[in-house]
Amino acid sequence: MRPTVHDIAAEAGVSLATVDRVLNNRPGVRAVTRDKVEQAIETLGYVRDVAAANLAKGRTYPLIFIMPAGDNSFMRGLEAEVRAATVRSAAERTEITILTVPAFNAQALAEALAEAHRRQPAGVAVVAIEAPEVTAAVKRLRDDGIAVVTLVSDLPGSARDHFAGVDNVAAGRTAGSLMGRFLGNREGPVAVLAGSMLVRDHRDRLEGFQAVMRDCFGTRALLPVVEGQDDAALAEKLVAALIDAHPDLAGIYSIGAGNRGLVAALEKAGKAGTICVVAHELTAYSRAALLSGTIDALLNQDAGHEVRSAIRVLKAKADGLAVIAAQERIRIDIFLKDNLPSGQV
Amino acid sequence: MRPTVHDIAAEAGVSLATVDRVLNNRPGVRAVTRDKVEQAIETLGYVRDVAAANLAKGRTYPLIFIMPAGDNSFMRGLEAEVRAATVRSAAERTEITILTVPAFNAQALAEALAEAHRRQPAGVAVVAIEAPEVTAAVKRLRDDGIAVVTLVSDLPGSARDHFAGVDNVAAGRTAGSLMGRFLGNREGPVAVLAGSMLVRDHRDRLEGFQAVMRDCFGTRALLPVVEGQDDAALAEKLVAALIDAHPDLAGIYSIGAGNRGLVAALEKAGKAGTICVVAHELTAYSRAALLSGTIDALLNQDAGHEVRSAIRVLKAKADGLAVIAAQERIRIDIFLKDNLPSGQV
DNA sequence: CTGTTAGCGCCTTCAT
DNA sequence: ATGAAGGCGCTAACAG
Where is the secretion signal located (chains A, B) (predicted)? Predict the structure, then answer.
């Protein structure tokens, strides 16, 4: 039988309350007494039963998730994962609220953060936009003791506690590697379609992609980046224009969302399967395009993992606990049509 | 505040004990009373607090893991993950024992399963070998109400409750896709180095690989499979012979372990970076080879995920609960040198 | 500074 | 067939 607080109390010759004070390093214990208790903990090899502790505490964690609105499939999937987490709220002692804001609008995001602040949650998860007013709003939350985690897109240099998302520079590098190797010695330039340079994840991916193309496939021409605002209609127009302007276009790297438009443009131009396409995020559309051969490779971040990690970290930070970084790392999944998980999505 | 057993008891006008009987559908409750309680559960929207239930029950789960001995890095990493899980035993109410058996030895494995049976655990996780005596031993465990999960390598057609591992046919297909595309129109045959055709995972990978090479890259010659018994020294000898016999060898697909030997042979022959290599499992050796360019792509199964999933499933099955298949799916990770997680391993 | 006492939500004898 | 009472391991008032 593993030792309990009672055993420690007996071993150390003190009361339960004192043991509890030491365990939760609360004040009001003489150093000598503390030592005795810690000694007992050590010799008995005590480890606290977290479930029992939570039961006794009855603590809950009000959490707020802020994410962009719009028809971006990835973001809607992310929201679905947050909703799935609210279902588990009972077991996890969380109370999750979702706030949606217009995409790529720093002002609106800052206001949502202020609104979240008013509600006094234990923590806030936010899909960030890099802008001074957002950074400032995050700082105010942290100054008030509210934990903040950035989700999917980071806000480096801010006061946020943690970033729950992938290494987007590595993602861009991987995209570059696949593009370069898949193209081999085939002729023609490569285009890049991003969502917006306002968000850090897109900027990071671009940086990684350009670095690999430059360092490893230096002879390949890279066209200037075009920004589709993660909007399918705009993306379609832009890609159609690219195909038109560059009949020998060999590849397209799609950094953000709007893959529906990208695919439509390729198909209408009769270039599906001819131009090598590397894109991001597994959605119903991108899955179909991968299977049909219009998209050659898909880099994905698992929204479910990100949401669950964000919740774990927010709870830990709210309790002032450290997190094990390695355990919270989100991986970049690479999907070819051959290793696509059969599941839904 | 969510409702508790007390609320149900009050609402139904019965005692706590009766509510408990209904909740755990134990006998000794009149149908009318049962109905009243179920009605109350329904109207109050009660969901039981599993943590509290476990605390009260004090139930633990004795589990046995059976895995191959030897210097196979992947298997040692797997064992390390099991050991890591034993550390979490306290919180998870598990008591894990590890049994190691000689690799690729069906007789020894069957005996280990019998030994596990004698110890009467709640569940057994086993890295399987496909053989009648193993299938029979698994059946005896199941017939005795002990949950069985195959780990890494499956035993299809047996009575096992679940397989905690990747879709190895898909893994083989992915390897084929990458090999074919990376080689492009470069000349030369492709060799396959397996561990043993006795284990299902190797057979499945081979099947997937051959299918894609045949269907999508039909002009590429495939050499007959050689078996290295997951042994580095033997693998080195075999690969050296292959290189010798086929000066124009374009690619090698390494299905199993022994990558150390593979890499050594390539380096000694001065073929490192020239022959396209796709291999499995991220270990200290394969990581180094990927970074140096000797290995071009690495398919990986996350041993930690597999072990944790196996434990979750064993506990659930031991309690007679269903598992959510989608949640327990283990993914195939693809690593290029650009998306290698920076961590240890 | 330290100890006593009463729960958290659930399960389990033991009576009735 | 049903109920009362005590306890799982921990925390949180409230006393002293």
Answer: none
